[in-house]
Amino acid sequence: MSSSSEPVVDSLLQALVFGGIGVFTGVALYVTVVEHPARLRIAKSDTPAALRQWNEGFGTAAKIQGSLAVATAAASGFLAVKSGVLYPYGFTGLLMGGIAAFTLVVISPVITRLYAAVEKKTDVTDEAVRDLLTRWGRLHSVRTVVSVTSLAILLYSKFF
To answer: b/e map of 42-59 (b: 16 or more CB within 10 Å)?
Structure first.
């Protein structure tokens, strides 16, 4: 790569990081503040409907958020290594990569149990499904807080 194209590549990677983390954070906030609380309200009177709604939305959101977390972590990491400094891209890369790892290690067992309930592979009570949905929501909130922190770091570095 020639040195004349480096500023363009850097700008594109920075746009990917800002845009990707912004979209990830927006989706995470929407799920945490709007969608999942509504789902839990539905679960009080119709747990199977709430579980179906979680299943319908989760697959698409997981693909979007998973891709964004990995792409922004990789782009942030590249920019941090290239610049030789951790702030801001090293921090955002670690945070977004941490979200991906947290999802795989901590949230995946809950997701697996929810999918088993959807597919009726296990005999699970409505109360157990509500508990799993509540736990999933709490764990998703962690992802939301981390992504908000990552976005705040980026915005602070850009404007202050």
So the answer is: bbeeebeebbebbeeebe
Domain extents for the chain? 6-159
Beta-carbon contacts of residue 82 (< 8 Å; ≥ 6 apart):
10
Contacts of 63 (CB under 8 A, 6+ apart): none
Tell me the pTM.
0.93
**pLDDT at residue number 126:** 95
Q: What percent of the chain has pLDDT over 90?
A: 90
According to DSSP H, which parts of 31-106 are helical?
36-45, 47-83, 89-102
